[in-house]
């Protein structure tokens, strides 16, 4: 064989070996197209920032003279991976919410490290669920959330689960639901969670999204966690006269303020 040809054949064989060695033979099978949406990890507030702005703002909340005390906290999702909880504790963060689930097809792969790690450093922690109301019923998503880390126990260190209700990542703002239908979905989730755990879930939302998509108030049952990336909390969603938590910044991580002293945060954890 011509030496040049022999060299080309050897090179091709070697290259083939390299391709074989590094090809993803053990990669997970492709997610069916209809299930791709629920495999995504949408962090709390990701769609609110997309629609309302504030993604890169480092906001410092202005002191409200009507509030006697506040408690600092953060929230995390799978995007943060394994979290250095001691570092955040040393920064004065005393509570945390951890994403557990989305719809009925996604579980945060870092949930155990994040949920248990925050607890182990001394934080009061809770779990949250990113809602996709056009995928399944409120009851089905509440059950899925509870089954995958979203439960509650009256130990004074576990906050009620939170329902993350915000803009649709895949289409129309209100998921193609009328205000009446969305209200019923929220009630279905909230009532199911309450029946199974003994407490109402916290509702996380923005004033703009809630007022566009929901036509009833939840102020007598559900604590409000409002998202607004500014130095003041501003107008609250329909029917709520006060808020329990405020997500005021997403930089360098989602920053939250509890509206009350540490004893009131403990009271919420006790139900």
From TrEMBL:
<dbReference type="InterPro" id="IPR002053">
    <property type="entry name" value="Glyco_hydro_25"/>
</dbReference>
<dbReference type="GO" id="GO:0042742">
    <property type="term" value="P:defense response to bacterium"/>
</dbReference>
<comment type="similarity">
    <text>Belongs to the glycosyl hydrolase 25 family.</text>
</comment>
<keyword id="KW-1015">Disulfide bond</keyword>
<keyword id="KW-0378">Hydrolase</keyword>
<feature type="signal peptide">
    <location>
        <begin position="1"/>
        <end position="27"/>
    </location>
</feature>
<keyword id="KW-0929">Antimicrobial</keyword>
<dbReference type="GO" id="GO:0003796">
    <property type="term" value="F:lysozyme activity"/>
</dbReference>
<dbReference type="InterPro" id="IPR008270">
    <property type="entry name" value="Glyco_hydro_25_AS"/>
</dbReference>
<dbReference type="GO" id="GO:0009253">
    <property type="term" value="P:peptidoglycan catabolic process"/>
</dbReference>
<dbReference type="GO" id="GO:0016998">
    <property type="term" value="P:cell wall macromolecule catabolic process"/>
</dbReference>
<keyword id="KW-0732">Signal</keyword>
<protein>
    <recommendedName>
        <fullName>Lysozyme</fullName>
        <ecNumber>3.2.1.17</ecNumber>
    </recommendedName>
</protein>
<comment type="function">
    <text>This enzyme has both lysozyme (acetylmuramidase) and diacetylmuramidase activities.</text>
</comment>
<dbReference type="Pfam" id="PF01183">
    <property type="entry name" value="Glyco_hydro_25"/>
</dbReference>
<keyword id="KW-0964">Secreted</keyword>
<dbReference type="GO" id="GO:0016052">
    <property type="term" value="P:carbohydrate catabolic process"/>
</dbReference>
<keyword id="KW-0326">Glycosidase</keyword>
<keyword id="KW-0081">Bacteriolytic enzyme</keyword>
<dbReference type="InterPro" id="IPR017853">
    <property type="entry name" value="GH"/>
</dbReference>
<dbReference type="GO" id="GO:0005576">
    <property type="term" value="C:extracellular region"/>
</dbReference>
<dbReference type="InterPro" id="IPR018077">
    <property type="entry name" value="Glyco_hydro_fam25_subgr"/>
</dbReference>
<dbReference type="GO" id="GO:0031640">
    <property type="term" value="P:killing of cells of another organism"/>
</dbReference>
């Amino acid at each position: 064989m011509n030496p040049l040809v022999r060299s080309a054949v050897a090179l091709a064989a070697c290259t083939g070996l390299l391709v074989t060695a590094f090809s993803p033979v053990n990669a997970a099978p492709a997610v069916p197209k209809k299930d791709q949406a629920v495999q995504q990890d949408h962090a709390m507030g990701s769609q609110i920032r997309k629609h309302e702005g504030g993604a890169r703002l480092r906001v410092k909340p202005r002191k409200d003279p009507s509030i006697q005390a506040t408690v600092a906290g953060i929230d995390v999702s799978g995007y943060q991976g394994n979290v250095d909880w001691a570092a955040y504790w040393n920064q004065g963060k005393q509570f945390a919410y951890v994403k557990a689930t989305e719809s009925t097809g996604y579980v945060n792969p870092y949930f155990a490290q994040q949920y248990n790690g925050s607890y182990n450093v001394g934080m009061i922690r809770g779990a949250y669920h990113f809602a996709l109301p056009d995928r399944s019923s409120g009851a089905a998503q509440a059950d899925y959330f509870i089954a995958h880390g979203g439960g509650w126990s009256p130990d004074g260190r576990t906050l009620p689960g939170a329902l993350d209700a915000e803009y649709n990542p895949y289409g129309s703002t209100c998921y193609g639901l009328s205000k009446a239908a969305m209200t019923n979905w929220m009630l279905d989730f909230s009532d199911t969670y309450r029946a199974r755990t003994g407490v109402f879930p916290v509702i996380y939302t923005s004033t703009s999204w809630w007022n566009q998509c929901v036509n009833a108030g939840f102020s007598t049952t559900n604590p409000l966690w409002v998202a607004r990336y500014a130095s003041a909390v501003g107008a609250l969603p329909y029917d709520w006269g006060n808020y329990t938590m405020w997500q005021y910044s997403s930089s360098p991580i989602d920053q939250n303020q509890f509206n009350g002293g540490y004893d009131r945060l403990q009271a919420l954890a006790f139900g």
